[in-house]
Protein 1
Amino acid sequence: MVTVPALLSSNVARNPMRLGHSCVAKFVCFAYNSGATRGMSGSGHRPPQVAVIGGGIAGAVCSHFLARRGAHVDVFDMGRQQPGGRASSRTPGGGGGGGPDVFQFDYGCQYFQTRSPAMKQLLAEWLAAGVVAEWRPRVGVYDVARGALRSREELSPSEAAALAEGGLPPLPCPSSGPLYAGSPSMGALVAHLLRPEEGGAAEGAAEGAAEGAEGRPPPSPHQQQQQQQQQQGGEEAEGGGGGGIHLRLNTRVIGARWSNDRWQLTWQQAQRGRGGGAAAAAGGTAGGEGAAGGGGGGWYDALVLTDNQVVRPGAPGHIVFQDAGPALEALATRLTQLTRRPQFALMMGWTGAGAEAGAGAGAGAAGSAGRALPPRLPCDAMHVLGGNAVQWIAVDSSKPGRSRADGGQCWLALTRPDFAARLLAADAAAADAAGAGSSSPLPAGPEYRARRAAEIWTALQEELRHIPGLAALPPPAFLSAHRWSSCFTANPLGRPFESDDGSGGGGSGGRWAACGDFCTGPGLEPAAASGALAARAVADMLGLPERAPAAVNGGAAGGVGECGGAAPMSASDWSGAF
């Protein structure tokens, strides 16, 4: 098991060039060390244990609010070095101690906006913590058919709708409000959300979750609370303290069984493999259950699902459920009917005139000798209209706090879903030919990423060749691709979240919630709202108090940006988020 402080401290130690991350790591480590010895609530009972599957925005927000309500949360994420899902960032070339070949990319979520009152409250907290900043890009639309740049206002309704078909959030324009990005990366925002709360649970809380993993589970805190209420004549048991967050990176939950009023989970940690198999978690492998290539199991009072792949056999995140109940079975059926839009992200990095000659940036480097000056887009972010391959290009180094001293450039391009689908169809054919079956995707190792990156790079050059100054793009010093096989949902569920409290009787199943942008559509705010509302539902199932302890994150309850020190906001507070 990897805690967030250990993860960030290790990443900073290995890569001091990640400007700003050291400050985040120091803050997280302080919060962890100040709270790690406090542990349990004032009632003397172990806090409820909640398992959150997925450390993307929905999972991170849900975990954050559950911890504020006093739950102990284990976050399971298949990320190799950091959580975040599509809110992750990548910093290739940093393993050697920094230098001109260090690049940074937000290779999923590009920006976000706020509309609902609740999201604006969260934004205030994030701005105060320094983990987001306003991004004021020059945004344009490149019309491939005309070979010309156009403004958002020039587009017809059908053209604007065509841009939205790619699964991106609405096209930003001056009237839509400010854009925000993570600072110094989107990954910093997720790390902020998943930091242990002050007054959070100690390592022993995680041991309590795994206690009794064989055979009959120990009495759950929920059961203890019910017993105490019965003994005290129905008086409500004291709650609130003892919440905390623990992160299990590089870990895939493979089984979930509802038994004796609790969830029994089993999981595996992927081994480091040649050719791009999942690597060990950053900062070294944790001992015991978290050992690389090992497995583990534990008991939880509630389960939160934030990944729609959990019900898809053959998918990397597939979970086998047992005795989960008809409500979860019905949700699984609905999730299998969702249409998923794949996407590839192309990461391109150029060093500037001030860069020193040196080693390349790892497997994706084009080499340092004879580098050309970096190209310049005519704007900071650009939608591509009518292209065959690419729908969005952003200069990642134009985001706040990311400009390079050497004048280099970091570009991020997102492919069209139909182009990505053709690449995945080729993957499926190759897997079939290799006898692996089309349901098992090809390993996304260095060779695979380099091959796909070269294909997308060629297509990108073709589409941009009519832009002045970009007819012949110089080869980047770093070039790589990331595969999002199930990136967006074309037909979301239509509800902010789904849940069941297991109170129906007759084998109704366990306490669970499902949240994420597959519920209502793409975008950081819908995902955050979904996670917050799911957290409220789960906390209510567990009988947790409405308000967090008096001090949260080192400040008084009700302080600026702390959402009043309270639980997730109500559904009415999130109006406008979807």
Protein 2
Amino acid sequence: MPTLSTVDHSRLLDAVIRSLRHLFKIGSGRGYHGLFPSLVDLDKPAMLYGIPPCVGGQRSTERSPFGVNLIHDQTTLRLAYELGQLCDQPDLIRGADAYLSYFARYCTNTPTGLFPWGEHAFWDLVHRRPGASHWHVPWLQDRFVVYDHQCQVPGWLWDKLWQFNPECVIRHAEGLDWHWQVLPGPDGKRTFCRHAFVVERQVYGPNGGDDTNIGYDFPRHAGFFLVDLAHVYRHTRRDDMRARFVEWAEYHWQRRDRNGLLWMLGHLDPCCTLSLGVSLLDATELIKEADPALAALWRERAERYLDAFLTGSHDPAAGRVTCDFSDDPTKMEASRLPVLVPRWTGNAFGPAATIGLLCFAAWRHTGRADLRRFALDLAQHYAGLDLPEANSLPARDVAQALLLFADAFELTGEERWRQVADRWLVQVEKRFFDRPLVRAWTGLDYYESHQSPGLLLIAVARLVSLLGPGFSRPVSPDYTRR
């Protein structure tokens, strides 16, 4: 590939569309029924049957070998729908429809109703059944098909699944009950675990049965489930769905500290508090017509979560976001959940840009100047950086920085954001788009959905639609990583 010194937006857009078509071509063959695998050869449209070693912060228990993971692919599919409309490419829409219609009709009929997707589960393309990321213990396959959202499922995806199979969406919402546990003791206190079994109809525990997972009631996961329930309540107006929504929402509201912060793994976490707050804003937007009073109550409480997030010892202008809080700094457990900074490791904590994007998402709901300022300060810190020269650079972390620049440009119109974005895009094109399919990591010769290459496709397409000519509107932002 020739050396690139300036960005060509139309060439970048062509590269994005080429990647989408590469994936859909795989899905159209070998009996995949529109689904495309998580591990793919970069040059030819074929599933990768060898399993490369983990890289960076990757864990083997989060991968989807020989399978497909809709949670990973949702950004890719959303982009296919948008570019199909904006660029008059109907084949992209057909490809996304083929994937989702098959998944909704044939991959969701599990004993619990929960879908085989997310952090530890997927759909096995070889055996055509729910697969476990703990693939190295096949005799425990059913026990280790574990449900965990991993990131938010946006409203457009629930709408599409509802279009193809509304019953599976309702069963999924009912299946969220499997996350609840009754703790031992006379009071029978209810708690929830972010994990649940997909295939086995029993409460999740590390050793199965009635083992409890105290401390795994992560606030951000409660936010994911609230959006899921809000969608079904909006469609059905069922009283039991409303009751589920209220129970999930009240659970953490009753567990705030005096600053309004929420607990995760034994410490107060401003970032998880923000995540739940933004998810509540999304959820109340979904139910405001079905239940205006309920929506108004939880929208007001969501703003209190946003207030609590800002009490953390953050310094966005220096690229610093803390995920641990204490009134006594000597007691902060920084080793448990470190301060977020611009990072390029692909690990579970994510880069600081994740929080900047959530602040932009909250600003779009509320118009709050303090959150807008926080996000812009963080974006400005990123603007002073260059992509590291390291051979191994994860698409996900780069994508979130690009999405931060895209929001900053869209919301301010300032030319400096265009210049920063174009400077980064030159490097991104050279290092991620030198093959027929976008790279998930630079320096690695395969595509893997777990590292969110679809998010990089969205980030590049969004910037091209904002900076270049020919678009009736920009590609929508993405705030699902929270």
Protein 3
Amino acid sequence: MMNAKAAVTYATLVVASLSLGYLAGVKNRKVTIPTTSSVAPAAKATQPENSVVEPDGFSDEGGNESDDSDASSDADGDIAALRVEDDDNCKMVLVVRTDLGMTSGKIAAQCSHAALACYKTLQAKNPAVRIILSTADSLDIIFHPQMLRRWERDGQTKVALKCDNEEEMLVMQAQAQSLNLCARSIQDAGRTQIAAGSRTVLGITGPARLVNQITGKLRLL
């Protein structure tokens, strides 16, 4: 029989997986053609500066954990400039505050909000790019996939971690944004268990080599 800690972690990762696991990844491709030099970025979707996460209902020990939460971007870095290298693995981490005393259902709902907020942000702000390099006889077209697609191709890795308080969470969010990573913290509407405006979960998505610089010392939820 799973203990409470294992149940929370399992519920968190299952919810995030179900929320995001429906799209297929794309592969890098390289084509050589005789043409003129240019750089042609792929079209970028339109998205509001702050993504608002819609309410979702999750049951925890028979209680309804439906809530409204907003995803806060604060001062984003240049997410569009962040490129993944050929050997990069991308992952998403969901950092949960433990000082709020949230139930497993509440944690699952808030992690789902954070996962979706990161997904929408990357979809809008980190487009795929085709870079055309000139050589003596031809041009090389190198396709750099959108980071979101690389994450999907890598198996949509999601890791639930924990931090002690809001101050620690805000420091990590600022560090992530300074590295141009996608970082979204969730502010609860205060309709169920905790005070309105409380930051509950921080989602960070990007190359593992960069994400680990920020969250590498945190413990699993």
